[in-house]
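Blinded run. Sample ID left blank on purpose so nobody reads anything into the name before looking at the predicted structure. Input follows.
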Amino acid sequence: MNNIAIFGYGTVGKGVYELTKNNPLFKVAAIFDKPEKKEELHNLLVTDIDSIILDKSIDTVVECLGGDSLPHEVIIKALKNKKNVVTSNKETISKHLSEYLRLANENQVSIQFEASVGGGIPLIYPLTIQSDFDEIFEVKGILNGTSNFILTKMSDEKMDKNEAIKLAQEKGFAEKDPTADLEGIDMVRKGCILASLITKKEIHNEDILHFGISNLNASMIAEVASRGKVLKLITDIKVSDKGTSVIVLPVAIDKNSPLAQVKNEYNGVLILGKYQEPLTFIGKGAGKNPTASAIVSDLVRINKKIAYPYPDLKPYYPLTSDLKGKYLLFSKESLKEVNDPTEQELKAAMFIARVE
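Blinded prediction complete.
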């Protein structure tokens, strides 16, 4: 049995507790949260981090706090005290993956983060295994359930963008402030994690060029549809002899392509390698149960002693931005089609979409 402590009893933390409390593989020994949760959690509630970290009977810490500052403190302390860590936190993983892996290896424990990318899709584990024997040259995916939900409502139901955002918030897909989803920041973090795992090199969020859908309107959706295309917000990772490119941007894709069929809060990822036919992964990318399920899959692997032993990342690796292709550049007054644009041209536009 694996004694676990859950840090954060919000939506995801509750989901993890529900999936583990009656499972004979696990015992939830403590839950860290605010004192106000005492009535709900009773004796499971712990409000002091160190009392959990220093408890040698606890094997694994599950971090569900969100953000970076406090999670970083918790994860560092847990690893240094020889506890396994499982987290869904793409912000802290994307910022500190190299540090976390080094500490896990130094202390002979495991850090697992399947739930940090793709929600409930089993993505990170198979991708990491494949990268050990195959040459992966492209990963392209819809990696944000909130933005995909909004784009689906706008495209399929002609819903106003603000209405779609409000509906996503009501359903629990979007935060009160949806900026990270609309601007592609969430997908930058996920792209950073995936690119780091593929290349086994330290990559920085700040190097990833990204364009969001904040300025998208109905006329732009109609223009894309008139070309027989569907608009999706895509993370595109390309690896070649010339370097690694990671870009987050709206893409007008063919209506018959696999990613065009990925709707609402679902995520979809295509993996192209040298020795395998293209692999497609599709599943729910937002919500309590998908994320909690991915966390518990990591817990099971730790319990069964089959968790992937991630090696230390090689030193910092700068990215290049592959901007080749045809783009639609929207301004308030006009629309231009541009081939192989510069970064400056793209940033000057009100809204952009690559055409594929």
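Unblinding after everyone has recorded impressions. The mean pLDDT is 96.
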